[in-house]
Amino acid sequence: MASESEERRVALVAEDRLFPVEGRSRDLARALYDEVRDLPILSPHGHTDPRWFAEDQAFPDPAQLIVTPDHYVFRMLCSQGVPLADLGVPRVDGGPTETDGRKIWRLFAQNYHLLRGTPSRLWLDHSFQHLFGVDRRLSAETSDWYYDHIADCLAQPAFRPRALFERFNIEAIATTEAATDDLRWHRMIRDSGWQGRVLTAYRPDGVIDPEMAGFADNVALMGQQTGFDTMTWAGYLDAHRARRAFFIEHGATSSDHGHPNARTEDLPQAEAAALFAKALRGDCTADEADAFRGQMLTEMARMSLDDGLVLQIHPGSRRNHSDQVMGMFGRDKGFDIPGRTDYVTALRPLLNAVGMRPDLTVVLFTLDETSYARELAPLAGVWPCLRLGPAWWFHDSAEGMRRFREMTTETAGFYNTVGFNDDTRAFCSIPARHDVARRVDCSYLATLVATGRLAEDEAPEVARDLAYGLAKRAYKL
């Protein structure tokens, strides 16, 4: 059994993590990884808070930075009976929640073993070791030492958001804002003179989904912001165009759509207008609301042909599965669950309307791995507008990324994908997530080389494209 002093000096992450076991393949993977490990990070889709970079204030405490905002972390603890309120997750019903950062951190540390074998553990240990210089494992015994050490780091100017942005070697990062957001933080960043590229992305779900709370009010607000009569179908579409232009002025290169499924429609404009009127009145059936969302994906694709925004579709999440958690804590609190998703039938109206246009880019994400080889790769392997987003959310893991490459590459190739994006609110995990993606991709390429399916002199170029080039081109960065 290791002594206390030995336990206090450990490498939290292995140097050859995620590389193949077989010797030649491991050597090839190492060599490829050396080509890409220090490339700049492009984060073209994510959910970090632009206010961090606008105000550049110190993060409040370790728990508020690492535990409370990260649904990957608190959902696992919740599954073992740890109350969300005890982890400091804010309540929307006005009820009490823990605010003492040290208490939250102690509870997190006591349950850290629950994350063994998960990508969260790999990301956290990477951050602890490489960002905060920690050389001991997190546990109940080391909890206070960790908290004090990280708190001391966060008090230093080198750990302010802009300094970390530069330390992480981030070339560009995109946040995600609602269509009616005033983008004040993005303006503050722009006016500050700081050179970090923090872009926004147009997320119009609140003004597209008739089943979302406040839909009609959001549409009315969009009319006030743009001066168009959003009580009419034509005015509503014009308001979208105006808001998209406003977002583009603030750096947006993409729109983002989190729909329950991938359904699209291409209705005659008179039918679309009638459906919109029903949506405003709150008279839509569930199927009509779904049809309206589908129509709006096609309308957004047409607008992208005019203004150049990349269209991202994130379907298949059965959101807010717990009514109790939704009522107490609100949306996006770890209870979003993957569901089966159809793409072939669902996307056909949009693709037949605009899918042959090579100047349109539609990035498809999925939470349904069964669709990779059967639907997504064949679709992206023929339609000029389609690209495949990386393994996402529940599959943003070493095994998930490997399965994605194995099931899509033979049909869609590498160049109908868009590299990697981290899709995270957890700022400190960004380098760790990109490191995992680069290691997994290099390991996959090494296997192709070792088995004679990829020339060894071609592999470094592919590795660089997967780590950097594909995202830069697809997202126009």
Automatic annotation (TrEMBL):
Q: Which UniProt keywords apply?
A: Isomerase
Q: Where is the signal peptide?
A: none
List the catalysed reactions: D-glucuronate = D-fructuronate; aldehydo-D-galacturonate = keto-D-tagaturonate
SUPFAM superfamilies linked: Metallo-dependent hydrolases
How would you classify this enzyme at the top EC level?
A: isomerase
Q: Which InterPro entries match?
A: Metal_Hydrolase (IPR032466), Uronate_isomerase (IPR003766)
- Domain of life, per the record? Bacteria
Any Pfam family the entry gives: UxaC
Gene Ontology molecular function: any one? glucuronate isomerase activity
This protein's pathway: Carbohydrate metabolism; pentose and glucuronate interconversion
Query: What Enzyme Commission number(s) does the record list for this chain?
Result: 5.3.1.12
Question: What family does this belong to?
Answer: Belongs to the metallo-dependent hydrolases superfamily. Uronate isomerase family.
Under PANTHER family, the record lists: URONATE ISOMERASE
- Which HAMAP family does this entry report, sorted A to Z? UxaC
Which NCBIfam families is this protein grouped with? PRK02925.1 (NF002794)
Name-wise, this protein is: Uronate isomerase
The source organism is Paracoccus nototheniae
